Amino acid sequence: MNRIEAGNQATKAVAADVRGQLVEPWLEATRAALGEMAGTEVSVKAIYKAPGQDKLGELNAVVPITSSSLRALILSFPHHTATGLARRILPEPENVDETLVQDCVGELANVVSGQAKALLAGTPYQFTFSLPKVVVGPNPIQLEEGETNLVIALKCDQGELALRLVIFSP
Predict the structure, then answer these.
(1) Is 79 exposed, middle or buried (0-12, 13-18, 19+ CB in 10 A)?
(2) Hey, what domains does the chain have and what are their CATH numbers?
(3) Residue pLDDT, tens place only, 107-142
(4) Across-strand partners of 47?
(5) Phi (first) and psi of residue 141, to 5 degrees
């Protein structure tokens, strides 16, 4: 085996490790939160790293994270997806307004973060988090030097959404 093949295998091993130890718990947390709160199933469309800003959604819940590998979770929604989920979650769907939609987006991110924190406790990816802030617009956070986005593009019966982890690049 030459150096290039060995390097490619090492890169694949690291990617598999990140997927198993980091991505899967966040996916499980997202599926649990949306399943319990909105009665919907979530499936993965794509997983990719984005070195720059992605214009993922119109409503973004930014959850600051403190850990050795993560800086933030951003749960992003097109407006119609966020509205559809809010109507499922809230007891009076006919009274859902923009403020309630934004509150639901923030609460979903809070629950996803709490679920993921429990799943990642005791692992190299354990973390603490602060309350989410909902940001309207496509670029809710600026990447700093040495950071990248790990984007998990998702879909459910109400539309598309994305889970973006702002990670420190090795």
Answers:
(1) middle
(2) 3-168 (3.40.1550.10)
(3) 999 999 999 999 999 999 999 999 999 999 877 777
(4) 152
(5) -150, 140
